[in-house]
Design goal:
alpha+beta; 4 domains; 15 helices; DNA polymerase, domain 1; 458 residues; globular; DNA-binding; Dna Ligase, domain 1; MutS, DNA mismatch repair protein, domain I; 19 strands; transferase; five-stranded mixed β-sheet
DNA sequence: TCTGGGGTCCTAGGACCC
DNA sequence: TCTGGGGTCCTAGGACCC
């Protein structure tokens, strides 16, 4: 917690529904529900007109229809939402370099990094009013609710206090007075399960929580959660605003309108999902070692199975083969309502098989593999070297100029390049004799660090 | 015909290594 | 023959968030 109100939280009001109303005037002033429109869909966002009828996020669309039959039910246009979101984030970033998006419609802004003359309440309030006006201007009239406080927690609570289209600044020193009467569920991380456990212990408000010892909370909720809750109950929150967060996993899942019973169909659906995961991994320059499938049975019990391979992959064929194999071990009698595939254990580099022995559905637009094959050193600037290792042999990294080659196993080498054209990133589809090809430089300042991966092969 | 999709973080147990 | 801990990795499940 800071001694000034310098953390801002901005939340776009009923965002998806508001974009629809903006783009289709006939929907303005009317109830609009955006979400899954299929038999098993749920509400993503309800306009304020629809909320009057009790329609809420995460409610099943069926229930929303029964509560508000005359609403417009829309499945959503994510491209439009992303565009609007990017416009808003650009406005925020023009105010401070420290902007942390939480989703398409929400972000924290660190005003301490905004270069303001001071961080007095009046000053930050003016900044917020200006931001809200700019948001409306660049998005064609979308409104946002803003909260400002001495921490993320307080800013987020504050932005909720005067929705929609509101602005609340919590002056430093006023945090506990604000929180004490509130229900424990205002604390981030306190969901239905935690609320129920606390309720059984007679704890309902933040004030109730405040007088419980940390030890007691840790006993009740576990180390991490108990400790975190104890801090937040005392309004102690030093979490920084972090602009970039590393992706940890990529997944695709789907719920089907009728339960699946045909295993061949399930395998085909997993394969299609694996392809989409692979596409997204490649688009982000990522690859991962752990493939996980998720299976939700007819009775809503959810099962996951994972398997981890020796080196990261972004190949649809590898991901789908592992996914389908994981499914084989599962009993799905009774039917499956959801299937999903995910990849985690991500690295931002890729292992190539130089000898072309894998079934890979990657279409190499250039033929980096072939050029590196058989020890053929490639090219200008890159000077790639090929090594062949015997099974079980220790593999060490080999420095090549300012770049690196890694490898493990027989005949497999991992190469990471960067090009003048694309900047850092995997460039597997580039021809090896492309003059733009430069060896990738390790990111550590002294150039001596190699990824952890290496340790595993020794 | 209750209960989405994309994520993050935590826990607990077992394997394995030193 | 018995008896350790500590650390890391992997797996499965659960809570939570938007």
């Amino acid at each position: 917690m800071r001694n000034v109100a310098s953390v801002l939280h901005l939340d776009l009001d009923a965002f998806f529904a508001a974009v629809e109303q903006r783009d289709k005037p006939s929907l303005r002033g009317k109830p609009v529900v955006v979400g899954g429109v299929g038999g098993r869909g749920v509400v993503s966002t309800a306009s304020y007109e629809a909320r009057k009828y009790g329609v809420r996020s995460a409610m099943s669309t069926r229930e929303a229809r029964s509560r508000c039959p005359h609403a417009a039910f829309l499945s959503g246009r994510f491209h439009a939402y992303r565009t609007a979101s990017e416009q808003v984030m650009a406005v925020l970033r023009a105010t401070s370099p420290l902007v942390e998006p939480l989703s398409l419609d929400e972000a924290f802004v660190d005003l301490a990094a905004a270069g303001l003359p001071d961080l007095e309440v009046d000053t930050v309030r003016h900044v917020a009013e200006r931001l809200r006006a700019q948001v409306a201007e660049v998005t064609g009239g979308l409104t946002a609710s803003v909260g400002i406080g001495s921490s993320k927690f307080i800013a987020k609570v504050a932005s909720d206090l005067d929705k929609p289209d509101g602005l609340v600044v919590v002056p430093p020193g006023g945090e506990l007075d604000l929180l004490r009467p509130m229900h424990v569920s205002v604390i981030p991380g306190v969901g239905p399960a935690t609320t129920e456990r606390l309720r059984r212990a007679g704890i309902h408000t933040v004030a109730d929580l405040e007088v419980i010892s940390e030890d007691e909370l840790v006993r009740m909720l576990g180390a991490a959660h108990g400790h975190g809750l104890h801090l937040l109950a005392h309004a102690e929150d030093d979490r920084p605003v972090v602009p970039e967060r590393e992706t940890k996993s990529v997944s695709v899942e789907g719920t089907y309108d009728t339960d699946l019973t045909d295993r061949r169909l399930m395998a085909a659906l997993l394969t299609r999902q694996a392809r989409r995961v692979a596409e997204r991994l490649r688009a982000s320059g990522l690859a991962g070692r752990t493939v996980t499938i998720k299976v939700r049975l007819h009775d809503f019990t959810t099962i996951s199975r994972s398997s981890t391979i020796g080196s990261p992959t972004d190949a649809a064929s590898t991901i789908s083969r592992l996914a389908v194999a994981l499914l084989q071990d599962l009993d799905t009698t009774g039917g499956v309502r959801l299937l999903g595939v995910g990849v985690s254990g991500l690295a931002d580099w890729i292992q190539e098989d130089l000898f072309g022995t894998t079934e890979d559905d990657v279409e190499p637009e250039g033929d980096l593999d072939a050029d590196l094959d058989a020890g053929a050193p490639s090219t200008a600037g890159a000077k790639a070297t090929t090594h062949t290792w015997a099974p079980g042999m220790d593999v060490e990294h080999a420095e090549m100029g300012r770049g690196w080659v890694w490898g493990s196993g027989r005949g497999v080498v991992t190469v990471r390049f960067e090009t003048a054209a694309t900047g850092p990133g995997p460039v597997r589809s580039l021809k090896a004799d492309d003059p733009a090809l430069q060896p990738w430089r390790p990111e550590s300042p002294d150039g001596s660090t190699v990824p952890d991966m290496h340790e595993r092969h020794r």
